[in-house]
Specification:
About 30% of the residues lie in helices and about 20% in strands. The chain has helices spanning about 25-35, 40-45, 90-95, 100-115, and strands spanning about 20, 45-50, 55-60, 60-65, 70, 75, 80.
Length: about 120
């Protein structure tokens, strides 16, 4: 089915998720992309998130004026991924179907506000 969303019109909602878990394969892909050893990429781009229910490598974040924090690979001015070709699998699969709930909400709000660039505040 054809996607019913347009990521180019979104300010990067999915990139603001607090825990963007990555696999060893994702880290190797990012390491190759940047020409770095895997251990350096792991340390520079991720951190270990461990609780009684989870043990994950999570992408580091940076401060953001819209979502408070956002993926470290997100260009905050262009509102686009800077490593799109090397992005992790979780990013490649999002939104896990042909509909993005946030895009539907954003589209509704922009129509309601009569403003194509409107971004709801948190």
């Amino acid at each position: 089915m054809k996607p019913r969303y347009d990521c180019s019109k979104c300010p990067g909602y999915c990139c603001s998720h607090g825990r963007i878990a990555v696999s060893d394969y994702d880290i190797r892909r990012l390491a190759r992309h940047f020409g770095l050893p895997e251990d350096v990429a792991r340390k520079r781009f991720t951190y270990r998130y461990k609780t009684k229910d989870a043990d994950e490598q999570i992408l580091r974040h940076q401060k953001d004026h819209i979502y408070k924090s956002i993926c470290r690979f997100f260009d905050k001015d262009e509102r686009r991924c800077t490593v799109y070709a090397a992005r992790p699998n979780v990013c490649r699969r999002y939104p896990y179907g042909n509909v993005c709930g946030y895009y539907g909400f954003l589209k509704f709000e922009r129509a309601h506000q009569d403003d194509e660039d409107f971004i709801p505040s948190a």
